[in-house]
Design brief:
single chain, mainly alpha, 3 strands
Length: 167
């Protein structure tokens, strides 16, 4: 009997275990595994002075534009335009986490200079909307597939009793 790994910090269904990394025999969401540690480390580093040379007028564009590749990747994958690629996911997530960590640290230092919370809420809202759209599309596809399977089973039953020309 195969041993079942627990899903720790993994908000994926069983069919998406490939989106998780195994850590101490637990499946952990790969995006979360990159996002939160990089974001927190960046916040600490920026709070300690790393990146202080970044001009204030660059900060808002960085906070808003650096997460864009992650958002586009998530959207394209959710809508079925891209296939899932762990390396691509890790790369765009790390860049997004750098922006988030720096943005939150800058906002903490001078609340009027960076809209990190606004960017986080905007990108988060987009992710929720895309997730719902993707879920509905997948649900419709599963439903259509189930309908085709049911029709095929009915046709096979009718054929087995000699009524194949009726459908």
């Amino acid at each position: 009997m195969a041993r079942h790994r627990s899903l720790l910090l993994a908000h994926h269904h069983e069919d998406h275990r490939g989106r998780c990394a195994t850590v101490a025999d637990h499946d952990v969401c790969r995006r979360c595994l990159v996002l939160y540690p990089v974001l927190l480390a960046t916040m600490v580093a920026v709070t300690l002075g790393v990146g202080s040379a970044v001009p204030v007028w660059w900060r808002n564009p960085l906070v808003w534009l650096l997460p864009l590749p992650a958002a586009l990747e998530y959207g394209a994958e959710t809508l079925g335009l891209f296939r899932y690629r762990p390396r691509r996911q890790v790369a765009v997530t790390a860049v997004s986490a750098l922006a988030g960590g720096a943005g939150f640290a800058w906002e903490r230092q001078a609340p009027t200079t960076v809209s990190a919370w606004t960017a986080a809420i905007a990108y988060g809202t987009c992710a929720v909307v895309l997730s719902v759209i993707g879920w509905r599309r997948q649900s419709k596809a599963r439903s259509a597939s189930a309908d085709r399977a049911a029709l095929a089973a009915t046709a096979a039953r009718l054929e087995s009793i000699g009524l194949s020309g009726i459908t």
